[in-house]
Amino acid sequence: MYVAVKGGERAIDNAHAWLAEERRGDAAVAELDVAQIREQLSLAVNRVMAEGSLYDPDLAALAIKQARGDLIEAIFLIRAYRTTLPRFGASHPVGTSEMRCDRRISATFKDAPGGQVLGPTFDYTHRLLDFKLAAEGEVADAPEAPPQPGPTPHIMGYLNREGLIEDEVPNDATPPDLTREPMELPADRALRLQALTRGDEGFILSLAYSTQRGYARNHAFVGELRIGGVGVEMDIPELGFAIELGEITLTECETVNQFKGSKTEPPQFTRGYGLVFGQTERKAIAMALVDRALRWKELGEEDQGAPAQDEEFVLMHADNIQATGFLEHIKLPHYVDFQSELELVRKLRREAEGSARREAAE
Amino acid sequence: MSDYNFAYLDEQTKRMIRRAILKGLAIPGYQVPFASREMPMPYGWGTGGVQVSAACLTPDDTFKVIDQGADDTTNAVSIRKFFEKTAQVATTEETARASLIQTRHRIPEEALSEDQILVYQVPIPEPLRFLEPSEVETRKMHSLEEYGLMHVKLYEDISQHGAIATAYAYPVKVEGRYVMDPSPIPKFDNPKLGMAAIQLFGAGREQRIYALPPYTAVVSLDFEDHPFEPSKADHDCDLCGASDSYLDEVIVDDAGGRMFVCSDTDYCRSRRAAGHVGAQGAPYEEGAA
């Protein structure tokens, strides 16, 4: 006799217990603590903060630990936490021209005021496994130079003096927020940038790469890439003035793109823009390329039908939490739908066989 | 969990969702955009339904969750536990005792009453999506009542297969105006859509809510010479003998042997408790599986 499958509840509890055990791994090996992840896996922490849309290195490190190193799962944990946080106000826009740069490079000018500062980069390392690291991770102190006095000016500002690059018109309108309002299309640039900065790094990277390979080709120069700390200020109504809440690390990328001019615009350089939490250079550059590709309409360019030009395609599929959830939901039971398909296929086959027999008889 | 608000979502968010629900009830079948929140379960796993349930639940409610008609499928268990934890509401498996029922892919067999709310989890709210991938375009089609594409699709089915080849998520027209996706319920359930209870549809990832007020006129799309036909397996339930319920096919041995059982576990249980026995059923015992 058939007994219906029961015990889903116990199975879930046991699966979770096993998961916790697997997360811990071999108990003879020392457990990772959150501070170790925050300090030594900081680029993973940065990605989780950027795509989780929450700047908190400790929570991001905790999420990585809990997610067994699965960064999309960690981003999901951060997003689900973030959504419960009350919103008590909005900061002033951060001033990246005031950034205390750890890294600042330009591919368009050999030198510029403020200089080229390589900072802590993988560029120019040879990707050879360092077997010494397997034994010990102690490093000698890096040489230090005195910090540059005063702010580092944006390189794009120099091009602007000649009118060679499109003007970015300041805008004081409150930008939309896709975490609070349903995303409506067509989206303005601010909304697109928000979707891109929290979008999946792999997806944005591949889209940007596709523009380099000819799908909406628009050759981009990295006008400037800078990484460093900026202060976050907020008006406190009780005080009547702004105070600095703290400092966050940002990566900003401004690209200079060719533009032959259109009916409405003279020939000049145009811009793509990327701004991402933390040291997240690949993402910021990719974001700037995709931003530029999405701007074809406002610049009067041709629609080449490329994926990176299709705002709806890009914005609707950039979020890895939406994507992974919907992808993985097909693991859930679909008995009922499958049953109805089974019956439909059987019925259609009966009909097809019936008509084949009739034809053979005729 | 005491750090979280009643039913998890903060009151501001619940108010926003309730506004969308009211708008949906005022325009039956219309997809209302809403600012869907990230929930602690993945998109595609019922986040839309969970948000609608969270916005509707009060401490006095009795809550029931089914997935594929069953109370004990893993995701139904997980969602029921979530609200037990965050809202401390009473839960039940008995359809008649529940004031709010969240469902995935089924409508309960037992008729619902005016005192009940049925909340559906919806993966793709747009009935035209697989005919036209762009949301900008499909919204335009709805506003212009331009449903020719859908009729062409159904017609092509008939010309190719001799029948409409849609077995679930069968499109309906609501009050003669909006074409609506009833969520992936089998078309067997479509005739129940004009029910006495309030029906709310939540699509979290796609940020849409829509609704059917009680006794709404809901018509499954068809043609005069090819009328809509709800269908189910041509069997009776092997456990309770019901001939009127939707059946799941269960493979029972290596030789491909199978049996058919009610997908609505509560319906099957209550029939067996009332003494009905199917071809392979055993007499019902309280507390047994």
Automatic annotation (TrEMBL), chain A:
Domain of life: Bacteria
GO biological process: organic phosphonate metabolic process
InterPro entries noted in UniProt: PhnI
Official protein name in the record: Alpha-D-ribose 1-methylphosphonate 5-triphosphate synthase subunit PhnI
Native source organism of the sequence: Roseovarius tolerans
UniProtKB/TrEMBL annotation, chain B:
One Pfam family this sequence matches: PhnJ
UniProt-listed GO biological process terms: organic phosphonate catabolic process
Residue stretches spanning the membrane: none
InterPro entries attached to this UniProt entry: PhnJ (IPR010306)
Catalytic activity: alpha-D-ribose 1-methylphosphonate 5-phosphate + AH2 + S-adenosyl-L-methionine = alpha-D-ribose 1,2-cyclic phosphate 5-phosphate + methane + 5'-deoxyadenosine + L-methionine + A + H(+)
Class of this enzyme: lyase
Entry EC no(s): 4.7.1.1
Keywords: 4Fe-4S, Iron, Iron-sulfur, Lyase, Metal-binding, S-adenosyl-L-methionine
GO molecular function, one term: metal ion binding
Record family assignment: Belongs to the PhnJ family.
Function: Catalyzes the breakage of the C-P bond in alpha-D-ribose 1-methylphosphonate 5-phosphate (PRPn) forming alpha-D-ribose.
Name the record gives this protein: Alpha-D-ribose 1-methylphosphonate 5-phosphate C-P lyase
Native source organism of the sequence: Roseovarius tolerans
